Amino acid sequence: AQRVTQPEKLLSVFKGAPVELKCNYSYSGSPELFWYVQYSRQRLQLLLRHISRESIKGFTADLNKGETSFHLKKPFAQEEDSAMYYCALRWNTGTASKLTFGTGTRLQVTL
Amino acid sequence: DTGVSQDPRHKITKRGQNVTFRCDPISEHNRLYWYRQTLGQGPEFLTYFQNEAQLEKSRLLSDRFSAERPKGSFSTLEIQRTEQGDSAMYLCASSFIGVTGELFFGEGSRLTVL
Lengths: 111, 114
Description:
The structure holds two protein chains of two kinds.
Chain A: E1 3-5, E2 10-14, E3 19-21, E4 24-26, E5 32-38, E6 45-49, E7 60-61, E8 72-74, E9 83-92, E10 97-101, E11 105-110
Parallel strand pairs in A: 2-11
Antiparallel strand pairs in A: 1-4, 3-8, 5-6, 5-9, 7-8, 9-10, 9-11
Chain B: E1 5-7, E2 10-13, E3 19-24, E4 31-37, E5 44-50, E6 53-57, E7 65-68, E8 75-79, E9 88-95, E10 104-105, E11 109-113
Parallel strand pairs in B: 2-11
Antiparallel strand pairs in B: 1-3, 3-8, 4-5, 4-9, 5-6, 7-8, 9-10, 9-11
């Protein structure tokens, strides 16, 4: 079965410190992984997707198929990075393309 | 605002009552999804429409739940005979075929069943 695991419910870091939000997945097919973010009082929105290999707001994520991981990283945390982060796996059922989300990690950046 | 809109934003109801939520997707999006999110959990897939056709339903969607998308535009999610376990945030999302994976979410409809 498809599964996304985010082991940390809360990650607290100081401003300027590096950030790594962990995500592991379980999927027998070819995975497509995403990170979604929800800032306070805002809707859930896409942060980045692995196929784009892009850096958004200083965040990057590399798909490691050997370790079945897609960790989100940022070298220097900013206060505005404080939010809820969800890792998601996209998979096809034949009739639908669906996202399975992890339970989320709350990132708290303090001064 | 041309984003996904949901109504109502909050609904408090007594156990056994019926409730209906509405979702208006981004106008050119032909895919529409309903997710449910409970405290401490990520969004869980409920059902999916491509245009007006409901192509997939989760096992989470008991027979008390029904969703429609008439004419492939807005969608409604109805819960009959609500139970306390139905209390959750109900999220609607839409996307356009050809855009890989990006769902555009609404702000959600929070249901509290007393």
